[in-house]
Amino acid sequence: NYILAIESSCDDTGASVILDNKIxxxxxxxxKIHELYGGVVPELASRAHxxxxxxxxDQALKQANINKAELKAIAYTRGPGxxxxxxxxxxxxxxxxxxxxIPLIEVNHMQGHILANFIEDANADKPxxxxxxxxxxxxxxxxxxxxDYFDMEILGETIDDAAGEAFDKAGKILxxxxxxxxxxxxxxxxxNPTRFKFTKPRVDGLNFSFSGLKxxxxxxxxxxxxxxxxxxxxxxxxxxxxxQHTIVNILMDKLKQASDQTGIKQIAIAGGVxxxxxxxxxxxxxxxxxxxxxFIPKFxxxxxxxxxxxxxxxxxxxxxxxxxxxxxxxxxxxx
Length: 335
Ligand code: ATP
Ligand code: FE
Known about the structure:
alpha/beta; five-stranded mixed β-sheet; binds fe (iii) ion; 42% helix; binds adenosine-5'-triphosphate
Protein backbone atom coordinates (compact mmCIF):
# COMPACT_ATOMS: atom_id res chain seq x y z
CA ASN A 1 0.00 0.00 0.00
CA TYR A 2 1.73 3.10 -1.25
CA ILE A 3 1.03 6.26 0.75
CA LEU A 4 2.00 9.78 -0.30
CA ALA A 5 2.80 12.28 2.47
CA ILE A 6 2.96 16.05 2.24
CA GLU A 7 4.65 18.40 4.72
CA SER A 8 4.28 22.20 4.53
CA SER A 9 4.11 23.45 8.12
CA CYS A 10 6.88 26.02 8.01
CA ASP A 11 9.47 26.84 5.34
CA ASP A 12 10.22 23.43 3.83
CA THR A 13 8.01 21.83 1.19
CA GLY A 14 8.27 18.05 1.48
CA ALA A 15 6.78 14.99 -0.19
CA SER A 16 7.49 11.36 0.51
CA VAL A 17 6.24 7.94 -0.55
CA ILE A 18 6.18 5.11 1.97
CA LEU A 19 5.55 1.38 1.56
CA ASP A 20 5.38 -0.79 4.71
CA ASN A 21 7.55 1.46 6.98
CA LYS A 22 10.08 1.80 4.17
CA ILE A 23 10.67 5.24 2.72
CA UNK A 24 10.85 5.09 -1.09
CA UNK A 25 11.40 8.82 -1.55
CA UNK A 26 11.86 11.85 0.68
CA UNK A 27 12.03 15.11 -1.27
CA UNK A 28 12.48 18.48 0.47
CA UNK A 29 12.60 21.91 -1.14
CA UNK A 30 14.07 24.33 1.39
CA UNK A 31 13.28 27.98 0.99
CA LYS A 32 16.44 30.05 0.75
CA ILE A 33 14.57 33.36 0.61
CA HIS A 34 14.18 33.59 4.43
CA GLU A 35 17.95 33.84 4.97
CA LEU A 36 17.77 37.40 3.68
CA TYR A 37 15.36 38.32 6.49
CA GLY A 38 17.02 36.42 9.34
CA GLY A 39 13.90 34.34 9.95
CA VAL A 40 10.87 32.83 8.28
CA VAL A 41 8.55 35.37 6.61
CA PRO A 42 5.11 33.66 6.63
CA GLU A 43 3.73 35.35 3.51
CA LEU A 44 6.81 34.42 1.47
CA ALA A 45 6.73 30.88 2.85
CA SER A 46 3.19 30.18 1.67
CA ARG A 47 3.95 31.58 -1.79
CA ALA A 48 7.02 29.38 -2.10
CA HIS A 49 5.03 26.32 -1.00
CA UNK A 50 2.51 26.98 -3.74
CA UNK A 51 5.31 27.23 -6.27
CA UNK A 52 7.12 24.10 -5.05
CA UNK A 53 4.35 21.69 -4.18
CA UNK A 54 3.63 20.20 -7.62
CA UNK A 55 7.29 19.68 -8.64
CA UNK A 56 8.14 18.25 -5.19
CA UNK A 57 5.25 15.76 -5.30
CA ASP A 58 6.11 14.82 -8.90
CA GLN A 59 9.68 14.15 -7.91
CA ALA A 60 8.67 12.07 -4.89
CA LEU A 61 6.45 9.85 -7.08
CA LYS A 62 9.15 9.59 -9.72
CA GLN A 63 11.85 8.61 -7.23
CA ALA A 64 9.52 5.99 -5.74
CA ASN A 65 8.98 4.76 -9.27
CA ILE A 66 5.20 4.80 -9.00
CA ASN A 67 2.24 6.42 -10.68
CA LYS A 68 -0.26 8.43 -8.64
CA ALA A 69 -2.99 5.97 -9.61
CA GLU A 70 -1.17 3.39 -7.45
CA LEU A 71 -1.53 5.47 -4.25
CA LYS A 72 -3.78 4.11 -1.49
CA ALA A 73 -3.94 7.24 0.72
CA ILE A 74 -2.65 10.80 1.13
CA ALA A 75 -1.25 11.96 4.48
CA TYR A 76 -0.63 15.63 5.20
CA THR A 77 0.49 17.87 8.04
CA ARG A 78 -2.64 19.30 9.66
CA GLY A 79 -0.67 21.38 12.19
CA PRO A 80 0.91 22.87 14.20
CA GLY A 81 2.63 25.48 12.08
CA UNK A 82 2.14 28.65 10.07
CA UNK A 83 -1.45 28.81 8.85
CA UNK A 84 -0.60 30.13 5.37
CA UNK A 85 1.94 27.35 4.90
CA UNK A 86 -0.30 24.58 6.27
CA UNK A 87 -3.16 25.63 3.97
CA UNK A 88 -1.10 25.06 0.82
CA UNK A 89 -0.16 21.45 1.63
CA UNK A 90 -3.56 20.78 3.20
CA UNK A 91 -5.58 22.02 0.24
CA UNK A 92 -3.35 20.18 -2.20
CA UNK A 93 -3.59 16.91 -0.26
CA UNK A 94 -7.33 17.21 0.11
CA UNK A 95 -7.90 17.88 -3.61
CA UNK A 96 -5.62 15.04 -4.65
CA UNK A 97 -7.33 12.57 -2.33
CA UNK A 98 -10.70 13.66 -3.73
CA UNK A 99 -9.66 13.32 -7.35
CA UNK A 100 -8.06 9.91 -6.77
CA UNK A 101 -10.94 8.87 -4.49
CA ILE A 102 -8.63 7.60 -1.75
CA PRO A 103 -8.57 8.37 2.01
CA LEU A 104 -7.03 11.53 3.45
CA ILE A 105 -5.02 11.21 6.67
CA GLU A 106 -4.33 14.09 9.08
CA VAL A 107 -0.94 14.14 10.76
CA ASN A 108 0.25 16.09 13.78
CA HIS A 109 3.69 17.49 12.86
CA MET A 110 5.08 16.96 16.39
CA GLN A 111 3.90 13.35 16.44
CA GLY A 112 5.66 13.07 13.10
CA HIS A 113 8.95 14.27 14.56
CA ILE A 114 8.68 11.66 17.34
CA LEU A 115 7.37 8.74 15.27
CA ALA A 116 10.15 9.29 12.69
CA ASN A 117 12.04 6.97 15.04
CA PHE A 118 9.89 4.13 13.63
CA ILE A 119 10.91 4.60 9.98
CA GLU A 120 12.61 1.40 8.93
CA ASP A 121 16.05 2.89 8.30
CA ALA A 122 15.87 5.68 10.94
CA ASN A 123 17.41 3.60 13.72
CA ALA A 124 19.07 0.21 14.04
CA ASP A 125 16.52 -0.78 16.71
CA LYS A 126 13.06 0.56 17.40
CA PRO A 127 11.90 1.81 20.79
CA UNK A 128 9.27 -0.20 22.66
CA UNK A 129 6.51 1.39 24.75
CA UNK A 130 6.70 3.25 26.98
CA UNK A 131 9.66 5.40 26.01
CA UNK A 132 10.65 9.02 26.53
CA UNK A 133 11.38 11.43 23.71
CA UNK A 134 13.12 14.78 23.90
CA UNK A 135 11.54 16.73 21.06
CA UNK A 136 13.63 19.76 20.22
CA UNK A 137 12.79 21.88 17.19
CA UNK A 138 12.40 25.43 15.94
CA UNK A 139 9.09 25.93 17.69
CA UNK A 140 8.94 23.26 20.40
CA UNK A 141 10.92 21.81 23.29
CA UNK A 142 9.12 18.95 24.98
CA UNK A 143 9.78 15.86 27.04
CA UNK A 144 7.14 13.39 25.96
CA UNK A 145 6.20 10.00 27.39
CA UNK A 146 5.02 7.78 24.56
CA UNK A 147 2.69 5.06 25.87
CA ASP A 148 1.64 3.95 22.41
CA TYR A 149 1.82 5.37 18.85
CA PHE A 150 -1.11 7.68 19.46
CA ASP A 151 -1.04 7.92 23.24
CA MET A 152 1.47 10.58 24.21
CA GLU A 153 1.85 12.62 27.39
CA ILE A 154 3.83 15.84 27.65
CA LEU A 155 5.86 15.64 30.89
CA GLY A 156 7.52 19.01 30.43
CA GLU A 157 7.95 21.77 27.88
CA THR A 158 9.39 25.22 27.39
CA ILE A 159 7.65 28.11 29.07
CA ASP A 160 9.12 30.60 26.56
CA ASP A 161 11.58 30.06 23.66
CA ALA A 162 12.23 26.69 22.04
CA ALA A 163 15.72 25.18 21.96
CA GLY A 164 15.98 25.82 18.20
CA GLU A 165 15.00 29.43 18.79
CA ALA A 166 17.72 29.68 21.44
CA PHE A 167 20.28 28.53 18.85
CA ASP A 168 18.91 30.82 16.15
CA LYS A 169 18.60 33.91 18.39
CA ALA A 170 22.09 33.39 19.82
CA GLY A 171 23.30 33.11 16.23
CA LYS A 172 21.65 36.40 15.36
CA ILE A 173 23.51 38.10 18.23
CA LEU A 174 26.74 36.58 16.85
CA UNK A 175 25.91 37.86 13.34
CA UNK A 176 25.47 34.33 11.96
CA UNK A 177 22.95 33.69 9.15
CA UNK A 178 19.56 32.05 9.77
CA UNK A 179 19.11 29.25 10.72
CA UNK A 180 22.16 29.39 12.97
CA UNK A 181 21.76 25.99 14.69
CA UNK A 182 23.79 23.97 12.17
CA UNK A 183 26.49 26.67 11.94
CA UNK A 184 26.88 26.87 15.73
CA UNK A 185 27.15 23.07 15.78
CA UNK A 186 29.95 23.16 13.17
CA UNK A 187 31.94 25.94 14.84
CA UNK A 188 31.54 24.30 18.25
CA UNK A 189 33.63 21.37 17.06
CA UNK A 190 36.78 23.50 17.18
CA UNK A 191 35.75 25.75 20.09
CA ASN A 192 36.20 25.49 23.86
CA PRO A 193 32.82 24.63 25.45
CA THR A 194 33.80 25.74 28.97
CA ARG A 195 35.47 29.08 28.14
CA PHE A 196 32.37 31.25 28.67
CA LYS A 197 29.85 30.48 31.38
CA PHE A 198 26.18 31.39 31.24
CA THR A 199 23.95 30.74 34.23
CA LYS A 200 21.35 28.03 33.94
CA PRO A 201 17.69 28.99 34.33
CA ARG A 202 15.81 27.76 37.39
CA VAL A 203 12.58 26.21 36.21
CA ASP A 204 10.42 23.87 38.23
CA GLY A 205 9.80 20.26 37.29
CA LEU A 206 10.52 19.15 33.76
CA ASN A 207 9.82 22.48 32.09
CA PHE A 208 12.41 24.55 30.23
CA SER A 209 13.18 28.23 29.77
CA PHE A 210 15.56 29.70 27.20
CA SER A 211 14.69 33.39 27.03
CA GLY A 212 16.96 34.30 29.96
CA LEU A 213 19.93 32.71 28.22
CA LYS A 214 19.31 34.81 25.12
CA UNK A 215 19.32 37.99 27.23
CA UNK A 216 22.44 36.89 29.11
CA UNK A 217 24.26 36.31 25.81
CA UNK A 218 23.12 39.66 24.46
CA UNK A 219 24.33 41.62 27.53
CA UNK A 220 27.61 39.72 27.61
CA UNK A 221 28.31 40.43 23.93
CA UNK A 222 27.34 44.10 24.30
CA UNK A 223 29.71 44.48 27.25
CA UNK A 224 32.62 42.72 25.54
CA UNK A 225 32.28 44.45 22.16
CA UNK A 226 32.39 47.80 23.94
CA UNK A 227 35.88 46.86 25.15
CA UNK A 228 36.90 45.13 21.93
CA UNK A 229 34.90 45.72 18.74
CA UNK A 230 36.32 42.51 17.23
CA UNK A 231 35.36 40.37 20.22
CA UNK A 232 32.85 38.23 18.32
CA UNK A 233 35.11 37.51 15.32
CA UNK A 234 38.11 36.73 17.52
CA UNK A 235 36.20 34.32 19.76
CA UNK A 236 33.49 32.93 17.52
CA UNK A 237 34.37 29.24 17.92
CA UNK A 238 34.58 29.40 21.73
CA UNK A 239 31.39 31.47 21.88
CA UNK A 240 29.52 28.91 19.76
CA UNK A 241 30.88 25.97 21.75
CA UNK A 242 30.05 27.59 25.10
CA UNK A 243 26.51 28.53 24.05
CA GLN A 244 25.83 25.10 22.57
CA HIS A 245 27.21 23.43 25.69
CA THR A 246 24.93 25.51 27.90
CA ILE A 247 21.82 24.69 25.84
CA VAL A 248 22.67 20.98 25.70
CA ASN A 249 23.33 20.88 29.46
CA ILE A 250 19.91 22.38 30.14
CA LEU A 251 18.25 19.77 27.89
CA MET A 252 20.22 16.81 29.27
CA ASP A 253 19.61 17.72 32.92
CA LYS A 254 15.84 17.63 32.45
CA LEU A 255 15.97 14.52 30.33
CA LYS A 256 17.92 12.73 33.07
CA GLN A 257 15.41 13.97 35.63
CA ALA A 258 12.52 12.65 33.49
CA SER A 259 14.18 9.26 33.17
CA ASP A 260 14.86 9.04 36.92
CA GLN A 261 11.34 10.15 37.77
CA THR A 262 9.59 7.65 35.48
CA GLY A 263 12.14 4.85 35.63
CA ILE A 264 12.06 4.72 31.83
CA LYS A 265 15.46 4.15 30.25
CA GLN A 266 14.54 4.02 26.59
CA ILE A 267 15.28 7.53 25.43
CA ALA A 268 14.69 8.94 21.94
CA ILE A 269 15.33 12.36 20.43
CA ALA A 270 13.44 14.10 17.66
CA GLY A 271 13.12 17.43 15.84
CA GLY A 272 15.57 19.67 14.01
CA VAL A 273 17.79 20.36 17.02
CA UNK A 274 18.28 16.61 17.50
CA UNK A 275 20.58 16.84 14.47
CA UNK A 276 23.00 18.53 16.87
CA UNK A 277 26.19 16.52 17.29
CA UNK A 278 26.66 17.31 21.00
CA UNK A 279 23.11 16.18 21.83
CA UNK A 280 23.64 12.99 19.84
CA UNK A 281 26.94 12.30 21.60
CA UNK A 282 25.50 13.00 25.05
CA UNK A 283 22.53 10.72 24.44
CA UNK A 284 24.86 7.93 23.37
CA UNK A 285 26.98 8.63 26.47
CA UNK A 286 23.83 8.09 28.55
CA UNK A 287 23.90 4.44 27.51
CA UNK A 288 27.09 3.88 29.54
CA UNK A 289 26.52 6.46 32.25
CA UNK A 290 22.86 5.85 33.05
CA UNK A 291 22.08 2.50 31.44
CA UNK A 292 19.92 4.14 28.77
CA UNK A 293 19.02 2.68 25.43
CA UNK A 294 19.30 5.63 23.05
CA PHE A 295 17.34 6.12 19.83
CA ILE A 296 18.94 8.67 17.54
CA PRO A 297 17.23 9.03 14.16
CA LYS A 298 19.14 9.53 10.93
CA PHE A 299 19.81 13.18 10.05
CA UNK A 300 17.35 13.41 7.17
CA UNK A 301 14.49 12.48 9.51
CA UNK A 302 15.25 15.15 12.14
CA UNK A 303 14.70 18.54 10.47
CA UNK A 304 11.37 19.03 8.70
CA UNK A 305 10.71 16.32 6.14
CA UNK A 306 7.73 14.42 4.71
CA UNK A 307 9.05 10.95 5.57
CA UNK A 308 8.06 11.52 9.20
CA UNK A 309 4.56 12.45 8.02
CA UNK A 310 4.55 9.31 5.87
CA UNK A 311 5.31 6.97 8.79
CA UNK A 312 2.44 8.47 10.79
CA UNK A 313 0.27 8.18 7.67
CA UNK A 314 1.13 4.52 7.44
CA UNK A 315 0.38 3.87 11.13
CA UNK A 316 -2.98 5.66 10.82
CA UNK A 317 -3.79 3.87 7.58
CA UNK A 318 -3.35 0.51 9.32
CA UNK A 319 -5.78 1.71 12.03
CA UNK A 320 -8.16 3.30 9.51
CA UNK A 321 -7.84 6.68 11.19
CA UNK A 322 -9.02 8.76 8.25
CA UNK A 323 -10.01 12.43 7.97
CA UNK A 324 -13.49 13.44 6.91
CA UNK A 325 -14.46 15.84 4.12
CA UNK A 326 -14.45 18.88 6.39
CA UNK A 327 -10.79 18.40 7.41
CA UNK A 328 -9.04 21.70 8.05
CA UNK A 329 -5.57 22.93 8.96
CA UNK A 330 -4.88 24.23 12.48
CA UNK A 331 -2.01 26.46 13.66
CA UNK A 332 -2.11 24.97 17.17
CA UNK A 333 -2.45 21.22 17.54
CA UNK A 334 -1.78 19.36 20.78
CA UNK A 335 -0.16 15.93 20.54
P1 ATP B 1 8.44 22.87 14.81
O1 ATP B 1 8.75 21.48 14.44
O2 ATP B 1 8.50 23.10 16.29
O3 ATP B 1 7.18 23.36 14.20
P2 ATP B 1 10.38 23.65 12.85
O4 ATP B 1 9.66 22.62 12.07
O5 ATP B 1 10.62 24.98 12.27
O6 ATP B 1 9.61 23.81 14.24
P3 ATP B 1 12.63 21.90 12.69
O7 ATP B 1 12.73 21.94 11.23
O8 ATP B 1 12.26 20.62 13.31
O9 ATP B 1 11.74 23.08 13.32
O10 ATP B 1 14.01 22.37 13.29
C1 ATP B 1 14.61 23.56 12.87
C2 ATP B 1 15.49 24.05 14.00
O11 ATP B 1 16.57 23.12 14.20
C3 ATP B 1 16.15 25.40 13.73
O12 ATP B 1 16.00 26.20 14.89
C4 ATP B 1 17.62 25.05 13.51
O13 ATP B 1 18.52 26.06 13.88
C5 ATP B 1 17.76 23.83 14.39
N1 ATP B 1 18.89 22.96 13.99
C6 ATP B 1 19.06 22.27 12.84
N2 ATP B 1 20.23 21.60 12.84
C7 ATP B 1 20.83 21.88 14.05
C8 ATP B 1 22.05 21.50 14.67
N3 ATP B 1 22.92 20.69 14.05
N4 ATP B 1 22.32 21.98 15.91
C9 ATP B 1 21.44 22.79 16.55
N5 ATP B 1 20.28 23.19 16.01
C10 ATP B 1 19.97 22.74 14.78
FE1 FE C 1 9.35 20.68 12.64
